[in-house]
Design brief:
Number of domains: 6
Protein name: SLH domain-containing protein
Shape: elongated
InterPro entries: Cell_Envelope_Struct_Comp (IPR051465), SLH_dom (IPR001119)
């Protein structure tokens, strides 16, 4: 018996337990977020000396577990139950049939599970299931299984994680997972969880806490739910339209197949269903493949293979309504074609739909298959009437295009004269769907050979089996001789005096009588070329007159339009000196008188003019006289103390240079061949004389200037007929041009250390002796260096100065 005082102490103690129990129900097991408030709860419960382990669930249920010492006979010793419930609630037992008596008055054998019902006046209630165990309190708290909709998750106790992969389209926001554990209970954010009852949002990873029975410890598991990616499937047909009865090949292609994890698990498996309501499946994989009901062989046997090429499918038997292919679980997909289905086209014209249903699922490491929802794809098949078109629309032979006459159904091809026509394949195109034969031989464009030495008949068959013959005729072009490239002078003579022709140096030297007038002579010549010109004047042997007081350049043109220059030099023979007889006294009888002739005085040699016959020294003198009254022109980048400042100022007065629009001269900039030619023409006062015949100056701003220099014999251009006006000019090229302006005596000397062997070596030596060019302090001339605007101008002025007796102040 418990005394009244003791009863009061027990009541106080039980009240404290109630307070602490209520406080504990408001916080999570790890002291974190508060647990949502629950109603109709048992706050504490004791089974004799043993306290019950209470768990409250959110679905108005709860559990109470009593752990008695090991070996306890659960059916022998009853204990009285004491408990406390929430305010305003009542409690009954035996599934709510009997009201709960006063505390401590109900004996209970723990082997017999019992249900207590805690209810409120508003009609709500919570049912508690009481169980007893004769064992030590369990110390483990592991999650032992976890699945979603029958899909088993992978539990990893090393990483305390769970991963589950579900089909594409699964709603992650309202999932009731199935799980088991060996702990006391599981909870999420302080809310106890019941397997297959409580819905959870798995849109992001969820932390499950498994509570221990023996203490307050928990085992936390992070549960991640993955959704299979959405593989996109497309269907294409091999043609836009089909003829009645023509097979239709449907290709199924996949994209977005990157759903294979790093260790090859969770691979995709598909099932293809084809409903042949209007079409039947025609083709198959292999005649030797055996199919049995409910089982389909894999298309690929190796685990390392991928479905990245199309495979032909067939039904397991002619009576099957659906074409189903269940792929081997170890075959993953790659983007690209995966299936090909060949259908029998209908005989009736029109457009028809071939429906295909494809199921996409996942195969786990254990072989479990998770199938997703079907994807329905409709393929439109157009059945049209066979075409009657039967034309050859293009025809060529060895790259030679043929001329097609559709009215006469003929093809004419012209090929080079030396073409071998015995065994040649033609290239052709015909109407869509048509085929071609020569006799009974099927023709393949670019492949099938024929003998075209005589006409060949091509028969074009339309889809509707009608046909049209084309007569193909091939003719050879006439022989076109290769233009002759010969361009030599064979013989050359003047005044019946044969010239000495040097074919290596391309020179001709002729010696004529001392009293010959060289200003207007006709030469006699023979040539292997097609024509001969001096400048732009075509030469006719024994007819065309030239002035041979200086060397004349004969240009021989070949049939292929190439040319060769010959430099013709005519020299006067030395005069014959006759000694007059000496006068003697009258001879005596019998004597003979010897008469000595009076010697003829040698003619005084006329000095050669400074310039060639095209340059008028009087014009240059007139330009000099005019410059004396011309205003001085200055440039913003040429100060008075700059090198060559005097020369630049004089050149502006003579009209040789004008400078740039911005008031600058750019003395140290390079100069092009056309720019130098323009300065030289202005300095010499030359005027235009027509077309230069250079093939790269048409439309060029300096074309007139270059024509003038070509006519004056100062420039010849390159052997390919070009002048290259925009190319920068070298110092050697300037020397070569200036040497052709003057009558120079070509010599060789060792004045410069870098011109030996240069193509303009003799011209450089001659102009150096005349003081027109100068070298560098190191003894070099740098013939191949690009000339600057100022140094090229100074060379021209030095030449003018030499011809005028050094009247100019230029340095």
């Amino acid at each position: 018996m418990i005394r009244n005082g003791s009863k009061r102490l027990v009541s106080v103690f039980m009240a404290l337990i109630l307070v602490f129990s209520m406080f504990g129900s408001l916080v999570s097991a790890d002291g974190g977020a508060p647990t949502p408030a629950l109603t109709n709860v048992i706050n504490y419960i004791n089974f004799g000396p043993y306290a019950g382990k209470i768990v409250n669930y959110s679905d108005n249920t709860g559990t109470v577990d009593f752990y008695l010492p090991p070996g306890t006979n659960l059916g022998q010793t009853p204990y009285y139950i004491n408990l406390g419930i929430s305010d305003g609630s009542s409690i009954s037992y035996n599934n709510g049939v009997k009201d709960w008596p006063v505390p401590g008055s109900y004996p209970w054998y723990v082997y017999n599970p019992n249900i207590f019902k805690v209810a409120s006046g508003d009609g709500t209630y919570r049912n508690y299931t009481l169980k007893g165990y004769a064992s030590e309190l369990p110390t483990s708290n592991d999650l032992t299984s976890f699945s979603i909709n029958g899909i088993v998750g992978k539990i990893n106790n090393d990483t305390d994680s769970v991963e589950v992969t579900v089909p594409y389209g699964t709603d992650l926001t309202n999932i009731k997972p199935q799980f088991s554990h060996n702990g006391f209970y599981a909870e999420i954010n302080g809310v106890a969880q019941k397997s297959n009852v409580d819905a959870v949002d798995f849109s992001s990873p969820v932390l499950y806490k498994i509570h221990s029975v023996s203490d307050a410890s928990t085992h936390d598991y992070l549960v991640t739910v993955n959704v299979l990616p959405h593989m996109t499937l497309t269907l294409t047909t091999d043609k836009a339209s089909y003829k009645p009865g023509e097979p239709v090949v449907v290709t199924v292609s996949a994209s977005g197949t990157n759903n294979i994890n790093e260790n090859g698990v969770n691979r995709i498996k598909t099932t293809l269903e084809f409903n042949p309501t209007e079409f039947s499946v025609e083709s198959y994989i292999d005649e030797d493949d055996e199919y049995t009901e409910g089982y389909y062989k894999p298309l690929v046997a190796t685990k390392d293979a991928y479905m990245n090429t199309p495979y032909i499918l067939k039904r397991s038997s002619p009576s099957e309504k659906y074409l189903i292919l269940d792929l081997h679980s170890d075959i993953p997909f790659k983007d690209g074609p995966i299936y090909q289905v060949t259908l029998d086209s209908l005989d009736t014209l029109g457009s028809y739909v071939a429906p295909l249903s494809i199921y996409i699922g996942n195969v786990s490491a254990g072989g479990d298959y998770i199938q997703g929802s079907p994807i329905i794809v409709n393929t439109l098949v157009n059945v049209v009437a066979p075409s009657s078109e039967k034309q050859i629309t293009q025809f060529s032979l060895l790259g030679n295009e043929g001329s097609i006459n559709q009215d006469d159904s003929t093809v004419d091809v012209r090929v080079p004269f030396d073409t071998d026509l015995d065994d040649v394949a033609s290239q052709f195109t015909v109407s869509a769907g048509a085929s071609v034969k020569v006799g009974t031989i099927e023709q393949v464009s670019g492949t099938t050979p024929n003998n075209f030495t005589s006409s060949v008949t091509y028969t074009v068959y339309a889809e509707d089996k009608s046909y049209q013959d084309y007569l193909v005729s091939v003719s050879r072009a006439a022989v076109i001789p290769t233009p002759n490239s010969s361009k030599d002078l064979g013989t050359f003579s003047i005044l019946n005096k044969s010239g000495i022709i040097n074919q290596t140096a391309k020179t001709v030297d002729v010696l004529v009588p001392a009293d010959a007038d060289l200003t207007a002579l006709a030469s006699h010549f023979t040539t292997t070329g097609a024509s001969v010109k001096v400048g732009d004047i075509t030469q006719e042997s024994d007819v065309t007159l030239n002035n041979f007081t200086h060397p004349v350049t004969y240009t021989v043109y070949a049939e292929d339009e190439s040319y060769q220059d010959y430099k013709v030099t005519v020299n006067l023979a030395p005069p014959v000196v006759v000694t007059p007889p000496t006068s003697n006294p009258s001879p005596g009888p019998g004597s003979t008188t010897t008469v000595t002739p009076t010697p003829t005085p040698a003619p005084t040699a006329m000095p050669k003019p400074f310039y060639n016959e095209k340059v008028n020294i009087d014009v240059i003198k007139a330009l000099l006289e005019k410059s004396k009254s011309a205003p001085a022109v200055t440039f913003k980048d040429v100060p008075a103390n700059a090198p060559n400042a005097k020369a630049i100022e004089l050149a502006t007065k003579l009209g040789i240079i004008k400078g740039n629009t911005d008031g600058s001269f750019h003395a140290n900039a390079t100069i092009t061949r056309a720019e130098f030619a323009t300065m030289l023409v202005r300095a010499l006062g030359l005027t235009s004389e027509g077309d230069s015949s250079f093939k790269d100056i048409k439309g060029h701003w300096a074309s007139g200037t270059l024509a003038t220099l070509k006519a004056s014999g100062i420039i010849n251009g390159y052997v390919d007929g070009t002048f290259k006006p925009n190319q920068t000019i070298t110092r050697a090229e300037i020397v070569a041009m200036l040497s052709k302006v003057m009558h120079t005596t070509l010599v060789k000397n060792e004045k410069f250390n870098d011109v030996s062997g240069n193509w303009a070596e003799a011209e450089i030596a001659a102009l150096s002796d005349m003081g027109i060019i100068k070298g560098s302090a190191d003894g070099s001339f740098k013939p191949n260096a690009n000339a600057t605007r100022s140094e090229s101008l100074v060379m021209i002025l030095r030449m003018l100065n030499a011809s005028l007796g050094d009247l100019l102040d230029i340095e």
